[in-house]
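Predict structure. Chain length: 196.
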Amino acid sequence: DEEFVVNGGVVTVPNGGTAITIGSGKVTVNGGKVLCNKVPNGSGWNSYIYQNGTMEITGGEFLGTIGNYGTIAIKGGTFSYCDDANDGFNNEHLAAGYTTQTNDDGSITVVKLPSAAKIGDVEYSTIEEALRAVKNGETIVLIANCTMAEVVELRDIAITIEGEYTITLNDKLKVFGETTLNIKSAIVGEVWLDDG
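Prediction complete.
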């Protein structure tokens, strides 16, 4: 598939319409402005992605809504019309590990979640992500205080958890089989052990 990369510039559609239409292939937007002035009671699409299209946004300014029937991953940028009922921006468009913050003018900016833990040089935004990714013999290093919100099951694995932070388990860590946990960090709560 072809790929088109936008690093800057301005795309303007003055009276509704669509600035970027993706039928197939991939468009990556790293910067610039995509401005679609919305017509009264109508649409102003900054991008419309069909079933075979892919879009990745890492930066830029967007005025208009996102029509998405393909694949989209948003890792940055500032968006207006974010609460539009006509398929406006929503959190389903966010790439894993990203969230939004609301600006004073009502627009939103996509930002990376702070990392909670890392394995080697790879950082994870939640301890659950790190626990699901860890392999036998590896070490998870906490780089922030972590609270588990989802159940993670470990089976037949030996891992180390270390770092100068606290992990709060909330009865969400379950171990099975021949699992060895070497925990060198402060811990709150209990590990659920399979006694079968």
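Summary: The mean pLDDT is 84.
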